[in-house]
UniProtKB/TrEMBL annotation:
Keywords: Isomerase, Lyase, RNA-binding. Residues 2-61 form the RNA-binding S4 domain. One of its GO terms (biological process) is enzyme-directed rRNA pseudouridine synthesis. Belongs to the pseudouridine synthase RsuA family. It holds the Pfam family S4. This is Pseudouridine synthase. It comes from Paucilactobacillus wasatchensis. GO terms for cellular component: cytosol. Its EC number is 5.4.99.-.
């Protein structure tokens, strides 16, 4: 037997804390009976319904995708554009969703899972999971400009946390530079906005690592299952 809120979180309904709120505010029934008491335990034989929708207790799955350009980091797209879940659809029948997101034109490492609790923890800034990007930018950033990123620039009226930033390559003829940037926040268009503040437009952006995970052995547009040891290590983060 497991606590109801844990079962809900693992089924991808919401985080464990949000699942607790759904229980106490009368959104959950077990075997047809309304349950509002935290600590209620259920088995695989019990029918759990959230707002009238039966809970699907699929096996927890975890995937690492090398997201290609021109794909939406979502489960569905109103405009009919290809989504990251479409890439796995032929072989993955379990309902999964991306952990965080990458912009339409951004490539690189993206995790997908049906583990709602882990997904919420990984995307919460409190846990400070490092994400490293490689950005091709217009112009050659100076040391002083990169220092601004390292100290934390203000975007959308709020200061970003300090980032790691270093130059990987410069092309003075074309007037571009390749910069490695590591952040542990996940604000909307964050890397692009950070470079915008210091006066350099991002021409291309690629996420090359997420915590200890890298894209080694996973070409663009391809994916792989995470190993059990990798999932355990993610939980430790």
């Amino acid at each position: 037997m497991e606590r109801l809120q844990k079962v809900m979180a693992e089924a991808g309904v919401a985080s464990r804390r949000k699942s607790e709120e759904l229980i106490t505010t009368g959104h959950v029934k077990v075997n047809g009976q309304l349950v509002t008491t935290l600590g209620t335990k259920v088995t695989n034989k019990d029918e759990v319904m959230v707002d009238g929708v039966p809970l699907s207790r699929s096996k927890l799955v975890y995937y690492l995708l090398n997201k290609p350009r021109g794909v939406i980091s979502s489960v569905h797209d109103e405009k009919g554009r290809k989504t990251v879940t479409d890439i796995l659809a032929d072989e993955v029948t379990t309902r999964i969703y991306p952990v965080g997101r990458l912009d339409y034109d951004t490539t690189g490492l993206l995790l997908l899972t049906n583990d709602g609790e882990l997904a919420n923890k990984l995307t919460h800034p409190r846990y400070e999971v490092d994400k490293t990007y490689v950005a091709k930018v217009k112009g050659i950033p100076t040391n002083d400009e990169l220092k601004q990123l390292r100290l934390g620039v203000k975007i959308d009226g709020r200061k970003a946390k300090p980032a790691k930033a270093k130059v990987l390559n410069t092309d003075y003829k074309k007037g571009t530079a390749i910069i490695s940037v590591t952040i542990h926040e996940g604000r909307n268009h964050q890397v692009k906005k950070m470079f915008q503040v210091i006066g350099h437009e991002v021409l291309k952006l690629h996420r090359e690592s997420y915590g200890f995970l890298t894209l080694q052995g996973v070409p663009g547009g391809q994916w792989r299952k995470l190993k059990t040891s990798e999932v355990q290590q993610l939980r430790k983060l």
